[in-house]
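Retro notes, item 3 of 5
We never archived the inputs for the phosphoribosyl ATP complex last cycle. Fixing that now. Sequence and ligand:
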Amino acid sequence: MDPLDRLEATIHARRVAADAGSSYVASLFAKGRAKIAQKVGEEATETVIAALAEPDTLASEATDLVFHLLVLLADAGLGLDDIRAELVRREGVSGHVEKAAR
Ligand SMILES: N=c1c2ncn([C@@H]3O[C@H](COP(=O)(O)OP(=O)(O)OP(=O)(O)O)[C@@H](O)[C@H]3O)c2ncn1[C@@H]1O[C@H](COP(=O)(O)O)[C@@H](O)[C@H]1O
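Structure as it came back at the time:
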């Protein structure tokens, strides 16, 4: 199994049954969607800062962002399959063409 799929499975398992005291993911779910969304915003900002000022840390910061985004998606009942479906839907459509058609 791909590491992203394994992480998603772990996140879902934590959502169903885990103690917030021993599981960071469970503690995020316990704090609620607003807090999870805030963490995604923080990690996005840290990713931008890394890209501009500390490229050596970019992969690590981007991983934090993806991790928290997966938690946010799970909280909303969404997951990697939804992202895959959306990517497939967009495949071959240039961003310029899509924007011009709006
Ligand atoms: N991939 C990750 C992962 N990436 C980052 N993090 C945590 O995300 C947190 C982000 O750090 P911050 O300083 O921003 O957060 P914080 O200070 O704790 O939070 P605030 O109180 O400041 O909001 C850190 O505690 C990191 O350890 C992760 N925690 C867990 N996982 C995966 O999730 C699995 C389940 O984790 P648990 O639910 O803790 O068992 C783990 O086995 C890992 O595979």
